[in-house]
Amino acid sequence: MGHREALLDGAKQCLREQGYARTTARDIVAASGTNLGSIGYHFGSKEALLTEAMIEVFEDWGDELGRVLAEAPPEGDPFERFAATWTRVIETLSLHRGVWAASVEAFIQSQHLPEVRERLADALELGRTGLASVLQGIPEDAPEARSVGSVHIALLDGLMIQWMVDPERAPTGEDLADGLRTILTGLR
User: Fold this and answer.
1) Has residue 73 been placed in a domain?
2) Does 28 reside within a domain?
3) CA-based, 20 to 30 A from 65: which of 88, 89, 139, 178?
4) How many whole angstroms separate alpha carbon 136 and alpha carbon 123?
């Protein structure tokens, strides 16, 4: 494994254990077995490295979610299928608490670092169509993939924050389905 890959692996470990804001370049070097100069050489900055690592962690989670959701949802009522899907999404949150906390920190940092914001924005754009595909089987190139994926990202981000702050009272898949049903029937 070269220094670039070792740095990414070390940065991922630091994100999981310490978060985005608390990870120093020295932490990454210690976790990767590389040197400080390698960060600048391969990524330009610690923030660029952490952002790239964050994006790879999101991709890994997307792959894991795809495996978790590979089992077909129950037939019948679309709200029951929605509840079952989001119940499985919620189950994956507990396995990656550190990553979700780091992602919130990265989003906040992106407001002050244009290069981080740009890279995260690009990742979000890919994530929209990817989530539509993983969660609902919509082809990534379908016209509705972006809008459907945008709704799922809004749900995921809001759910993730609620779950991180108060996992005991955060909404369940059934809560989300019931809320969606109520919202949709109340639209005029």
Assistant:
1) yes
2) no
3) 178
4) 19
15 is a domain residue: no
What's the CA gap between 145 and 15, in Å, rounded? Answer: 30
**What is each CA distance from 25 to 32, 46, 99, 113, 177, in whole angstroms?**
10, 6, 18, 17, 43
The residues, ordered by sequence, that sit 6+ positions from 156 with a Cβ below 8 Å of its Cβ are 89, 131
Q: Is residue 148 part of a domain?
A: yes
Looking at the 3D structure of the chain, how many domains does it have? 1
- pLDDT reported for residue 36: 92
Contact 148, 136 (CB under 8 A): yes
Task: Note if the pTM is more than 0.70.
Answer: yes
Average pLDDT over the chain reads 90
Q: Which domain holds residue 166?
A: 53-186
Q: How confident is the model at residue 50 (pLDDT cuts 50, 70, 90)?
A: very high
pLDDT tens, 83-122? 988 998 898 887 888 888 888 888 888 899 888 899 889 9
